[in-house]
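In this section we walk through a basic example: taking a raw amino acid sequence and producing a predicted 3D structure, encoded as discrete structure tokens. The instruction is simple. Fold the sequence below.
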Amino acid sequence: MSTYVETKPKVTTRRLLEMKERGEKIACLTAYDYTTATLVDGAGIDLILVGDSASNVMAGNVTTLPITLDEMITYAKGVVKGVKRAFVVVDLPFGSYQGNSKEALASAIRVMKETSAEAVKMEGGSEIRESIERILSAGIPVMGHLGLTPQSINKFGTYNVRAREEAEAEKLLSDAKMLDELGCFAIVLEKIPAALAEKVAKSVTVPVIGIGAGGAVDGQILVFQDMLGMNNGFSPKFLRRYADLASVIHDSLGHYVADVKSADFPNASEQY
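The resulting token sequence is shown next.
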């Protein structure tokens, strides 16, 4: 009888912490469907986020605010089915946890039970402490998110870099330490000065994942469609494009249309 030898062990919260402790960078990426998740997982990504950015890239909304918990669960179900190794985190969407810790726990429980994901992510610090504590008390891993928090875009009024001023920087550092002390397994820092992000990463025990937060943190995350050049209308400074799939897809579709119109497709070898 043959024995299966696991060459790439499943990523867990413990493994992520060990990666930080030994200085191994953590590669993270978003995914919102089964097919994409199989590709992302197969490439060796450590952590997959089913982000509420699905509101933008999948549903075409201007902000992340409209997406619902039901929609997030639907996206996450497909992603989890396509993953063998990566650690899967699901964003709790706007309105599913702020201001009501009992509702927050109910939302997190739904995500865990209905999707089989391994953790939830929540935006904010001291303002949502009670909700984080209640979810953690149920044994559900929580990833924090500080800096630019898109669910609060109407409060900020801009997507500019956050925490440039001393007061906001101090609060961010304080919130990061609080999230660490409460027991969050990791923290995302979005669009903040690199020096501040480095200070945070050195001040907490858990992995710090950056998006527009410099290279001194413990890992990086980007949106799948952005880093592959499928969304050329979005060009922040922190984004590195690894492909130009928009052009590849456009050209391929054009060739398909031309082949159908000219009756070249299907040819004799493509028929039964």
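Looking at the output, two observations stand out. The radius of gyration is 20 Å. The beta strands are 26-30, 47-50, 87-91, 119-123, 142-147, 186-190, 208-211, 219-222. In the next section we compare this with other chains.
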